[in-house]
Design goal:
The protein is about 50% helix and about 5% strand. By secondary structure, it is mostly helical. The protein has a two-stranded parallel sheet.
Length: about 90
């Protein structure tokens, strides 16, 4: 699990026994997380460009990001836990 010092990782560490934690120091970046954020931003921009509006409300922006994340989680990822099951199927049963 990749994480930083922004939260109480000792409490979470107790809940996830057997999980290897990679805790970054202050000012460090986690490349895996940074790439995931960039992918979500890219998908959200593509979604916004396909909608015929020039301005977006906060609610529209929030739902554009949620839609992008939902679609990313609908398909199995390369090198993921399962090659047949998507993350949403594994975690939520959807």
């Amino acid at each position: 699990m990749f994480c930083d010092n922004e939260f109480d990782h000792e409490t979470i560490r107790n809940d996830f026994h057997g999980t290897i934690f990679d805790v970054c120091g202050a000012g460090e970046r986690v490349p895996v997380v940074e790439r995931s954020i960039e992918t979500i931003k890219e998908r959200t921009r593509c979604l916004c460009k396909s909608i015929p509006y020039k301005r977006y409300t906060k609610l529209m922006t929030v739902h554009a990001v949620l839609t992008s994340v939902r679609w990313i989680n609908q398909f199995p990822s390369k090198g993921g836990i399962s090659e047949q099951l998507s993350p949403s199927k594994i975690l939520e049963g959807i």
